[in-house]
Amino acid sequence: MFQHAIFKIDEHHVGLEVNTVYKEYRYPVEMLACGQKYDGIETTLNKPHGKKIIMEFVINLLLKGPKQYKPFVNQILQRYTWLELNDVLEILLLDGVIQIIFKNQNPRKMVNWLPKTIQLDPRAMGNLLGNSPDYKLELSKLKDTVVRLVTGSQSSIRKNLLRWVEEEEIKNQSGTVVVDCKSFKKYKSILLTVAYYIHLKETGRKLPLRYISNQVWNKPKLLSLYKNDSALLAGIPLNELESVLLPDINSSLYAPLILISPVEKLQKLITELSDILESDIKKPELLICLNKTDYCTQNILEIIADDNSVTDNYLKLYDVLKNDLVEGNYRKARLTIINDLEPSIKVLKKQLLKIERMRQQFELIALEEIGSGSFARVYKVFDPEYKKIVACKVLFPRSHFKQVYGNDGDEYIIRFKREVKLLNEKLQHNNIVEVEKLQLEGAPFWFTMPLASYSLEKWVKENGGASEEQRIQIFKQIISGVKYLHEENRYHRDLAPNNILLYDMDNGPVVKIADFGLAKDPESMSFFTGLSKRGYGQENFTDPEQLNNLAKSTNLSDIYSLGALLYYLLSGKLPKKRKYVPVTYQNVVMRAMDTRKNRYQTICEFENDFNKYLKQTGELRHIT
Ligand SMILES: Nc1ncnc2c1ncn2[C@@H]1O[C@H](COP(=O)(O)OP(=O)(O)OP(=O)(O)O)[C@@H](O)[C@H]1O
């Protein structure tokens, strides 16, 4: 009966002293319960005795709870030994399936908590009370899969792998058993990681380890946990394993910043240059080649984190050489080439090889950070699959939300997923940004989109001299995107200069509206409307009513933002209250930003009025 309910034990059931404030970091750091002091769950779980304490604590809380908990707790106690129970509960606690919820007193500053409820997610019931797996069957299925994956492979690792399958245990190089099939999770993970490695290598394919982990365990990170063990036991160098089973994007976020596009070009030029150097040097050829190589090296230098200054040295040498060649000091130039340039080119070649290897190893390679908002960071990244540079928005990790907002970040995960799904599945318009790749199976959550040339904010700052016509061309496209949204019965609710992206095209910039994290489908009950009372939006561009309460946002909120954006585009100034400078379409701006009653009531009304003034101004200009 309670399979489908979330169990809740309210304040009076928790056994914690209700009026005591407990300090908490990720999980309670210090917790005084029933007269006993407990450390944070995470820390506690790391110590065997602590684990027992915390598990007893959870069970006790459950037992002291409402009546319906008792059969459940009794069943799990009968079914599992303490050791097994610890494992199960540990996973459930760390995954947040069993949650001890505390009332957050001061979410933004100190993290002080009052215990409020302990609750059990229905998944916990499934995990704990579901039929216990038939391990014999599981093991035989695993063996079949491993054998199937490596059939026909000539890999030397295959022999070891098949021995591990046959002996039902994994031994290290010195013959010691490291894991056997009784630790089924680890055993299965290692076998499959190695088997997939062999299989993919054989077929010349690469896959993110996360995808496979999800297929095997329905958990995107589980295989990563055993990645090092798998590599070590099978004798595969870790970076070799990672060149086939690609790591997550976040592990590449700290990789050297590498712009990939000139790599092939540079490689070709360096080969050409080396050939010329080895043969009879002809001055004009060498000059052309040096010029081209110099251009690419400049590019590389700009973005490569070149600690050894190899490229830098090369460029300095290049300058000396070029001077000598141009000034006809040919003998000196030849000496420079032989003494300095040749070894320098060799080092450069090595660097390029490193870059080449690197770019094969990641799903995406972060090149630089573009900026961050309240819940995500945007990076310029290289996508090795499509060989192009795109933008990637990565949701902050839970620990960030914990630190900054004092919560687990569920709200932001939902918001992020909703943004991506909305953009990917529902919205299609030339003035709305499109999603290319996405990763929503587990943290880190991210999606890629075309890289914009600028945000509107940057464009306005850098294009002070742009004509009014250019500005109006941009604004018309913003209206077109918002109109489409409203026709689709959605509101953006966060229209602001950093969310309007501009893409340089031959016929002028193309606008794409981005950042749909706050977008609302008016027919759905918004999660945020229900739970969050925090104000949303960027102050100068947001309808004042929405700033205090997101629930109050309607299509009129977007119309307010359009007025503010028009003012910003025309004046280059932020629309701060009572500090307006006169602009051409003053009437439109003022009416769009007026009180809700006096505002344009629909986007069409706004557009028609704007077009009317546009025509009048045009005619007036024509006459004068
Ligand atoms: N596709 C893109 N190309 C280039 N820059 C982008 C792209 N998408 C976003 N940006 C820039 O990245 C920065 C961060 O964007 P993000 O959407 O995370 O936050 P925000 O809009 O600044 O704030 P918030 O989400 O809190 O409203 C912004 O300056 C934005 O202009």
From TrEMBL:
<dbReference type="InterPro" id="IPR000719">
    <property type="entry name" value="Prot_kinase_dom"/>
</dbReference>
<feature type="binding site">
    <location>
        <position position="393"/>
    </location>
    <ligand>
        <name>ATP</name>
    </ligand>
</feature>
<keyword id="KW-0547">Nucleotide-binding</keyword>
<keyword id="KW-0418">Kinase</keyword>
<dbReference type="InterPro" id="IPR050339">
    <property type="entry name" value="CC_SR_Kinase"/>
</dbReference>
<dbReference type="Pfam" id="PF00069">
    <property type="entry name" value="Pkinase"/>
</dbReference>
<dbReference type="InterPro" id="IPR017441">
    <property type="entry name" value="Protein_kinase_ATP_BS"/>
</dbReference>
<dbReference type="InterPro" id="IPR011009">
    <property type="entry name" value="Kinase-like_dom_sf"/>
</dbReference>
<keyword id="KW-0808">Transferase</keyword>
<dbReference type="InterPro" id="IPR020635">
    <property type="entry name" value="Tyr_kinase_cat_dom"/>
</dbReference>
<feature type="domain" description="Protein kinase">
    <location>
        <begin position="364"/>
        <end position="624"/>
    </location>
</feature>
<keyword id="KW-0067">ATP-binding</keyword>
<keyword id="KW-0723">Serine/threonine-protein kinase</keyword>
<dbReference type="GO" id="GO:0004674">
    <property type="term" value="F:protein serine/threonine kinase activity"/>
</dbReference>
<protein>
    <recommendedName>
        <fullName>non-specific serine/threonine protein kinase</fullName>
        <ecNumber>2.7.11.1</ecNumber>
    </recommendedName>
</protein>
